[in-house]
């Protein structure tokens, strides 16, 4: 990657899953190892950016040089991101926040003798939609879309609905792409209609391609 080409920019990056408690021992979550988000943070640090990594629970080591912010629930991730966005230039949301949470959290462990627990679910807040509504002039917002079919169509819809500048679409049903693995195969879709289909590559290289695209979009916007 280019040397220090992101110096002067503050990136907020989300990674990993979030978890929503059902009772003191059980939770709802989404699949995510955190590898994609951590790779983005690592490459951004290497290229000279200031990086805040807002991370759900993962088994990964902290990224040296990044400011680590550890969160558990989607609401906590939202507050962390809102806090960090006060002086940030770019948000890249690679996390897989839990989309649903129990309306009521049982304070005691639910016992099998009590029968099946009734789980009434509600939606968690949408981090990207909230942040993009409150965005300051000059802030760039990048989302991911994890799809299992019609990836480009669903990705384009999320790009528009969440008010993003760029969306990184991955078909998580493809071998070597999506969760857990060290590689990913993504399609970059921009607000202006560009479609960039990247081959399967290491997540660190995917990260570099995304960062370079963000840098390019920002310099085009600033008329450089
Ligand atoms: O962590 P890895 O194991 O390396 O796997 C990487 C990954 C597959 C998790 C990653 O590449 C990825 O696709 N992340 C997005 C997962 C996801 O939640 O996708 P989604 O299509 O459900 O959400 C779309 C976008 O909205 C995402 O940017 C997500 O961060 C964001 N979102 C989702 C829910 C929510 N409540 N708030 C959000 O902001």
Q: What's the layout of helices and strands?
A:
Blueprint: E1 10-15, E2 19-23, E3 26-29, H1 35-46, E4 50-55, E5 67-70, H2 74-84, E6 90-93, E7 100-102, E8 121-123, H3 127-133, E9 140-147, H4 151-161, E10 166-171, E11 183-184, E12 186-190, E13 195-197, E14 201-202, H5 203-221
Parallel strand pairs: 1-4, 1-6, 4-5, 6-9, 9-10
Antiparallel strand pairs: 2-3, 7-8, 10-12, 11-14, 12-13
Helix pairs in contact: 1-5
Summarize the structure.
27% of the residues lie in helices and 27% in strands. The protein has helices at residues 35-46, 74-84, 127-133, 151-161, 203-221; strands at 10-15, 19-23, 26-29, 50-55, 67-70, 90-93, 100-102, 121-123, 140-147, 166-171, 183-184, 186-190, 195-197, 201-202. The strands form four sheets. Strands 5-4-1-6-9-10-12-13 form an eight-stranded mixed beta sheet, with helices on both faces. Strands 2-3 form a two-stranded antiparallel ribbon. Strands 7-8 form a two-stranded antiparallel ribbon.
Task: Tell me about this structure.
With 224 residues, the protein is α/β, with parallel strands linked by helices. The protein has a single domain, classed as CoaB-like (Rossmann fold), CATH 3.40.50. 27% of the residues lie in helices and 27% in strands. Strand 9, helix 4 and strand 10 form a beta-alpha-beta unit. The protein is globular, with a radius of gyration of 18 Å. The two termini are 21 Å apart. The relative contact order is 0.16.
């Amino acid at each position: 990657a280019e040397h220090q080409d992101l110096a002067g920019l503050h990136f907020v990056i989300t990674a990993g899953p979030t978890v929503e408690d059902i009772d003191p021992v059980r939770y709802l979550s989404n699949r995510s190892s955190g590898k994609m988000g951590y790779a983005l943070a690592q490459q951004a640090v290497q290229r000279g950016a200031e990086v805040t990594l807002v991370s759900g629970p993962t088994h990964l080591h902290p990224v040296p040089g990044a400011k680590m912010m550890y969160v558990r629930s989607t609401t906590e991730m939202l507050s962390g991101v809102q806090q960090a966005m006060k002086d940030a230039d770019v948000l890249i949301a690679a996390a897989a926040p839990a989309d649903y949470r129990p309306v009521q959290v049982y304070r005691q462990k639910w016992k099998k003798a009590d029968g099946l627990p009734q789980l009434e679910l509600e939606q968690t807040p949408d981090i990207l939609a909230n942040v993009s509504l409150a965005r300051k002039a000059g802030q760039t917002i990048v989302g991911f879309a994890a799809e299992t079919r019609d990836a480009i169509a669903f990705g384009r819809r999320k790009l528009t609905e969440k008010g993003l500048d760029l969306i990184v679409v991955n078909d998580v049903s493809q071998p070597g792409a999506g969760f857990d693995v060290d590689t990913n195969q993504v399609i970059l879709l921009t607000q202006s209609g560009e479609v960039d289909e990247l081959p399967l590559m290491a997540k660190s290289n995917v990260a570099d391609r995304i960062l370079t695209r963000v840098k390019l979009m920002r310099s085009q916007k600033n008329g450089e």
